[in-house]
Amino acid sequence: MTLREIAAIAHVSPASVSLVLNNKPGVSDAKRQEIQALLQKYQYGVPKAGVAAARQLLFLKYMRNGLVVEKNTGFVASILDAIEAECRSLQYTLRIEVCRENLADYIQQADFSQLDGVFVLGTELGADEYPVLERIPLPYVVLDNRMPDHPCVSITMNNHEMVHIAIRHAFSLGYRRIGYLKSSMHIQNFDDRSEAFFEEVRSLSMECGNNDVFELDPSPMGAYTDMSNFLKNGRTLPPCVFADNDTIALGAMRAFSESGIRVPENISIIGFDDISFSAMNGLSTMHVSTDRLGRMAVRIMDYVLHSEDLRDCKLLMGGRLVPRQSTVPYVS
Fold first, then answer.
1. CA 39/CA 44 separation, integer angstroms
2. Please, which residues have CB within 8 angstroms of residue 125's CB and are 6 or more apart in sequence?
3. Alpha-carbon distance 261 to 238, whole Å?
4. CA 309 to chain CA centroid, nearest Å
5. What percent of the chain has pLDDT over 90?
6. What is the distance between the alpha carbons of residues 96 and 83, in angstroms, rounded to a whole number?
7. Residue of 116, 168, 130, 133 whose CA lies nearest to 286
8. Cα-only R_g, the chain
9. Which pLDDT does position 297 carry in this prediction?
10. Close Cβ partners of 224 (under 8 Å, ≥ 6 residues apart)
11. pLDDT value at position 22?
12. SS in 3 state form for 77-109?
């Protein structure tokens, strides 16, 4: 007898059965007793004598629209590789699922009964969806999203600190006017970077006017197309620009090249993420240790599963500047 079959008999969703199995609230007392009776009747979840219960974790790759996650696959894949390696080290098995649909519907229909915990890729998770995660009947850890104002366990890069480092790098090279290649798509990481960018520009008394901000699609082709259109329409460029991520920076660099604008002779550019293509194209950027992020996520999950005192912890991981050929000292 499977969990879905038991749910069908009880006329509830598989998630409701998972709530009962994990002694979580969200099911009425009468229905809880009914489900418990069915679980006992069919001996569901009762381990065989002498067999230890398997420890299994789920990596839920959530894509609200996929624009950032799918176009930045190397970044996500690196995190996932690190999670898999650390799971093996701590003797967890890892299951991977992709949610392209409504998150609430996915959680409602999912079978969590054989799992110990859930990693949620929160890159594209919107603030309106944060409360939906509380329906997961297991401990969960959100990756790649700071999850502001939502009590949960999360781990991501320290966007504010890292953007400050990037802007100070430009300042140290003599730039006093700087532009911003800003994502036209709003996700928490980009919002954090935008806030940090203008914060540090003000702190250093640098100049960044309205015409120095270029909103670009956060995909390679989209950023290239949008920047090409700005250049065709006669927008002038500042001597240095910071991009919300490397994908945007590389798309813009292609547009610069086709318009006869040379990097770094005519414009310096700094990215964020340090994806593999950045080194190939000489892009100065902020390095995010995806290996550390993934491994630490598993260690945090392991701690959460063995402790009751870690239920609202936001971990921010620092990064480092990787200066390459795309940034040079300012020449008037």
1. 5
2. 62, 64, 103, 142, 145, 147, 187, 188
3. 12
4. 25
5. 75
6. 11
7. 168
8. 23
9. 97
10. 251, 252, 254, 255
11. 66
12. HHHHHHHHHHHHHCCCEEEEEEECCCHHHHHHH
| Cβ atoms of 116 and 57 closer than 8 Å | yes
**Which amino acid, one-letter code, is at 172?**
S
- Tokens encoding 324: 């390459």
Place of tokens 């020449």: 331
Domains in the chain (CATH in brackets) are: 1-53 (1.10.260.40), 55-157+291-318 (3.40.50.2300), 159-287 (3.40.50.2300)
179's tokens = 């532009």
CA distance 90 to 153: 19
- Residue among 193, 188, 187, 190 at smallest CA distance from 162: 193
Query: Dihedrals φ, ψ of 93, to 5°?
Result: -100, 150
pTM: 0.84
Provide the 3-class DSSP secondary structure of residue 89: helix
pLDDT above 90 (res 75)? no
Alpha-carbon gap, residue 272 to 319, rounded angstroms: 10
Nearest Cα neighbor of 85 from 287, 294, 256, 235 is 294
